[in-house]
Amino acid sequence: MKDLRLLPLVIIAVGALLVLKGVGLIVGEPNLVGGSRPALAQDSAAPQDGGAQETAGQGEAPQPDGQDQTSAQAGADGQKAAATTERKTPEAAKADEPSFLERVLGSESRSREAILDSLGERRQELEAREKELDLRENLLKAAEQRLEQRIAELKDLEARITAVEAERKGEDDERMKNVVTMYESMKPKDAARIFNRLDMSVVSKVASLMSARQMALVLAEMDSEVAQRLTLELSAKSADPIADTGGAGGELPKIVGTRPVN
C-alpha cells in the first residue's frame, strides 16, 4: 500500500519536472531544469525518511526562481568537484612523492656535485700554487744568473789583479836582480861599506838574493855589529829565499852559521 501511494507522487514529480523543463526552454534558462533535479532527488529521498504526506507536500511545493536554481547548481558542482579533489588528492600526493630510487639518485647527484665543486676548488688552489712556484723558480733562476754573472766578474777582476801583481812582482824581481848583480859586481869592501849604511830590511833582501860566496866576502868586510844583525835577520826567515829566487839554495845559512863574527 505504501508503494502504491508513492507512485502517484513520483508521477506528479516527473510531470512537474517536464513542466519546468518546458518553461526553461521557453524562457531561455536551462538552469531551471538543473535546479529541479536536486529538488527531485530530495523529493525521492524524503518519502523513505518521512511519511507520504511530507513527500506530497514537497512535490507540490512551488519551484524556486532562476537565481536560486543557479546557486543550487553551483553548490552541487562545487561539492562534486571538492569530492573529486578529495578523492584524487592522496593519489596525486603519492604520485608527486619521489620514490626511494629517485631519492637515492638525487642524494648521489648532490654528493657528486659537492665532490666536483670541492675538486674544482682544489684544482684552482693547485694551479695558483703552481703559478706561485713557477714565479719563485723564475726569480731564483734570475738571481742565480745574476750571481753567476757577478762571480764571473769577480773572477775576471781577480785574474786581472793577479796578472797585475805578477807583472809588478816580475818587475820588482827584475829590478832587485839588477841591484843584486850590481852589488855582486862591486868589490866586497865597497859593497860592505854601503851595506853598513842601508836599512836592514833592504840589506837582508839583497843579501838573500846574492850568491853565498859573494855575500860571504861582503859580510867579512862589514862592521861586526851590522854583520851580526844581518846574520840574525837572515836566520829568522821562515823559508829559504835563495831557493825561491833561483840562487844557490842552502849555502847562505851554512855560511852564516859557520863564519865567526869578529
Describe this structure in a few short sentences.
Residues 85-97 have a biased composition (Basic and acidic residues). With 262 residues, this protein is an all-alpha fold. 85% of the residues lie in helices and 0% in strands.
Radius of gyration: 70 Å
Distance between the termini: 190 Å
Strand count, sense and closure of the main sheet? none
Report the total helices.
Answer: 11
- Class by alpha and beta content: mainly alpha
State the share of residues found in helices, binned by percent. over 70%
Q: How many beta strands in the DSSP annotation?
A: 0
The protein's oligomeric status is single chain
H/E element order:
HHHHHHHHHHH
Strand content: under 5%
Mean pLDDT: 72
Low-pLDDT stretches are 35-64, 241-262
- Globally, the shape reads rod-shaped
Fold and architecture overview:
The protein is mainly α and 262 residues long. Among the domains are: 2-91; 186-258, no CATH class. It contains eleven helices and no strands. It has helices at residues 2-27, 31-49, 52-59, 66-96, 100-185, 188-197, 200-209, 212-221, 224-235, 241-244, 251-258. Helix 6 (188-197) packs across helix 8.
Highlighted features:
262 residues; disordered C terminus; cell projection; MgtE_N_sf; coiled coil; cilium
Task: List strands and helices in order, with pairings.
Elements: H1 2-27, H2 31-49, H3 52-59, H4 66-96, H5 100-185, H6 188-197, H7 200-209, H8 212-221, H9 224-235, H10 241-244, H11 251-258
Helix pairs in contact: 1-2, 1-3, 2-3, 2-4, 6-8, 7-9, 8-11
